[in-house]
## 1
Amino acid sequence: MNHKRHFHLLSHILRKNSSLIECAVRKICIEQVPIFNQLNDREKTEISFLAVSKRFQKGEIIFSTNELSENLYIVHKGKVKISRLSISGKEQILQILEPGDFTGELSLFGQSIQKSTAEALKETDICLIRGKDIKKLVLKIPTIAIKILEEYTKKFDEAEDLIEQLGIQNVEQRIARYLLKIVGDKENNENGEIELALSISKQDLASFIGTTKETLSRKLTAFQEQGWIKLIGHRRILILDKESLRQIIYS
């Protein structure tokens, strides 16, 4: 009888500890998101209890086109590709989500239909919050709605920029713009170079900038021959002449 009691007690402790650990992980996930970073510790803990943790393997679909959109998806760990298929069946990548990024914010305003697909590019942990729970939170903490609208506006501007690039700029200009965006404010090393590590495959990069993998590889090789960049392996690039890349964009 004592053994049974000890077993049940141990099981209860393990379940409780597991639940506490999971809650702590969800809270870390919540703290990564800009829309929640102004909340106090109690409010973040409250939200973490509403979240559900889910793990997706590389290549696994998180949600698909035409599904009901009723959840907020927060990337805790990993990387997620948001894409759409054109009428001809060609994939266009809209966003690459990394830890702290989220999608599904429109679930705050009511049910809608997904117009894109989300796919895990590597093993990915997602914190999911149901839209109806988000609405309840907004009634208690209205500043969340303002932050969501701010983030949505930022995404809308980025989408408009992407449409402009695809419609006006040629492939060389789009590649140069992407490389310079990654460069950001990085400083040159002692050799006058800036090293970049592509966070996505060349196939996904090609889809993101609206071209084929073969064309992307050919253009990058041409950039290298011009002495503007140096390719190292599959995903590393040395930027040798940032100014020439900038001139391509505005030529």
## 2
Amino acid sequence: MKVVKVLLYVLLAFVVIGAILGMIGPKTYKVERSVVIAATPNRVWPHMSSLRKANEWSPFLKMDKAAVVTYSGKDGEVGSSSSWSGNHKVGKGSQTITSIEPMKSSEVQLKFFMPWGEMVSSGSLHLDPDPAGTKVTWVMEGKNNYVGRMMGSVMSMDKNVGPSFESGLADLKKMVESSSGASSAGMNYQINPTPFAGGKYLAIHKTMPMSDISDAFMKGIPNLMTEVKKAKKDVAGAPVGIYYTWDEKKMEADIAVAVPFKGDMKAPAGMEIITVPASKAMVIEYNGGYGKMGDAHMAMADYIQTSKLENVLPVMEEYVVGPAAEKDSTKWMTRIIYLVK
């Protein structure tokens, strides 16, 4: 009987301790880890916006390669989900995409089916520009129920799950950087959604060999500026290149060398008025000489394709600071504008 009493006292002690821990344990938990990947955001984004792609570097599914994973909905869109069932390390659960901001963040609701009930967490992946490429931050957070507070008092969620986050992000970094598209040439371009206000342009518009484009700008811009002033109109901004086609096979482009102006005017002989309507736009502020600007256009094209946007012609280059104002080409700045819908 004494043994039974001792066991009862021990059991009661555990119950009391558990009750206390359940009351004083942490009410919330948060796990956060980051890694910098030497690649443009558009190269990283597909691996975090798609649940199927994310599971390729997930550290948790690697704990049980025989785990069964099922998918529903249109992958990469809000409402799509995946569920899994595996061994005791993986367990059972699901995740559903709740929010997506292309090239910036993806958020999911996580459900873990535990022996004592359902545990719900919020998960998110964030992209931020970094001098060395793209910073990826992985976060999981939520509120502890009574059992969670008890467990949180004796076991740190951050110390328990954090190393797995680090392992997964290391695999993501390796996966992206080893891909053929993650070249250093395009890794520092920041692409921003920027409303385009539209405008009117006095332009010299023609199809010309690519070798003649530089000369067309050097001769055309001063003439256009002169005509705008003759018409007593105000110049509304920096000179612009308006590109309708760019044919690398024929080595020619359909381009308008243009100057924006305010008000209305008639186009002099050999010139025309071009009106570009207001539109949604994606913009790169490119710094440097024109020789490597093609890399920025390639990064923009990849971004638009990955984001499932549609480019609306023309493509525009706004020469905010150029050779006419600054001899040092490292100080030149060009706004590359892609109209989208």
## 3
Amino acid sequence: MNTHQNKILSNFIITVVLFLGLETLSVLIGLNQIWEFLSVAWYLFAFQVIWIAFMFDLHLKDSRPVSLASVQFRHILRDAFVQRLRHFGNFQYLRHFANYYVLPTILFWSAAALLFLNPFRPELKQVVILISAFAFCLNFAHMHEHLSRKLSANSAWLRILSVAKLLVAYEAYAGIIGICWYFAYPTKVVFWLTVAVTFFLMHQALFAHGFQKSRVYLFAIIFALFSGLIGVWAFHNWTYQYLTAALILLALYNTVWGFMHHYLEKTFTSKIALEYLVLGLLVVSIILATHNFAAQVI
């Protein structure tokens, strides 16, 4: 089996496991088995964490043979152990290792939250599961490609990752507003969760594209705080219609990231700015025009 086939098989396995796992969560919450739902969710998340660590270790470990110069067996074992784990001491590798967990973590718990909020809506649950599985597939495909290239970025795969990132952002924002409404959390929880998700998504995108400057991260923090304020506004005005409210935050995120991305790559033009503004305003206008702000839960 060649490298390309290995990537396909590996991505297929993790995607199928997570797809079936989300289907299991859907059935459990439909049967109102909340503790079992939470237990299975933690096991699935642990499997995902271990799988990412395994793939990271598999691609970046030092495969050079151990020196047999020493005749003492304990020295051979020590040298083999140190050399085997040497890549975990490489700061560049560790930064990528931590960054690989951002999208899968946010996506998994967002999908679990949306399933929890809709226990008796099978059609919606299937849509959530299919979108999540697709985003998982795109993310892991990018991770495999990135690792096999020894952390070398590729523009085509970065575009694929961008699609996954938008799906993750939507589910995350919907999950935050929905869970906070369901459990009647205060607005400060909505604010800080939105800030955290926005910042980590921006950080992941900046890191993947190689834009690692302090002033850029400062702008990401400022934008995350602004997103938190918009999230609070959406939380108060949309309440239980969290699936629509998430589109407001997604349109804002996509517009700002589009501006930022093209500016940093020095491809920013007035035409690109107009395209992002028109698309963002179109989405927001449709949402505002069709939303019933007087709707209440009785």
## 4
Amino acid sequence: MASFFKKIKIFIPIILIVLGACTKWKDKTAQDLGLKNKYCNNPAAINYNYGFPGIADSSVCIFPSSPFVGRYKFQDSIFGLSDQMVLGDMHTFEIVSVDTVRFKIVNYCSSAQDIFFKANRYYKADVDSGIALGAWLFCRELDTLRGQLEYNSWDSSLTINWTVNSDTNVTTHKGKAYKY
């Protein structure tokens, strides 16, 4: 037992020296790099981390549905089963954002039916499933719509490629819609 106390007497000064030398860590103040640009720090945004390094600011984020929003004019080109083009009606419609990835087209048809789409970060949007997988009711209750939109950032236009199944036939609607 006496040897045990002798060993403790030797280690106590060493332990006190080690504990006395330790101090609590304090973070150094951050170095000001003079960065003023803002960048989006939200992974769901199209422009995630664009402009990094800088100051994180969610107000500069662009989400997948954002580029599509606006008013458009569209000269419809309709292709039937024979692949012969028929010039369709001139449509004016508006795209309204529902959330960060979904939007709806309002006032495309004379009916009150809105058409919902789901966009991705690559400026493409597919018809959001409404009544069946990848289909939505179109201008008449007997019509279903399948297809997609693509936003063209260089001229703020939409490339439209839709297939409409109706009670009488299947038609494809293609063309460009321009913001106005």
